[in-house]
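Pasting as-is:
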Amino acid sequence: CADVTGVQTCALPILLLTDKPGKPKNFKPKEVWADNILLGWDAPDDDGGVPIQNYVVESKNMSKRGQAWTKAGKLRVVDTPPSLSCAVTLSRATSFQGQSPTTELRAKKLNPGDEYVFRVAAVNPEGQGPWQELKQPIKATDPYGDKTICLLCLLYLLQLNITITTSAAFLQNN
């Protein structure tokens, strides 16, 4: 282990302890609509000593009795320092999009009026960490209600009718 200068260099075994990642933090709905919900969370405090590869998201429709957890999507983390970006692998008819480290996914094709719970887990080379579940079910409903949307549609149709009437009157006079 010594060279001619008297400096010793030795190869020592290094024991690297890695584990599964911890729970994602701050998991919550950011937007709620009748057919989709935008979910957001932050990366776990503990990545297990190795980078997180992806996040797994599952949903359960609470309006249907006996509904099991369903894999809603898998968000793959692509390492592009200094920031992280995400690519999406779709499962079923659900699509997601997002960016890390503050991750957002939009769960689509939900049944209007049904209540859903969601959970997310981080995955690294050691495996999947524990689930972080939303504390309350979320009802898939438009934030302004059906009557507001119908009123907006009616106003739009009235505007079209007024525009058409005005245009017809203009053509008759010219």
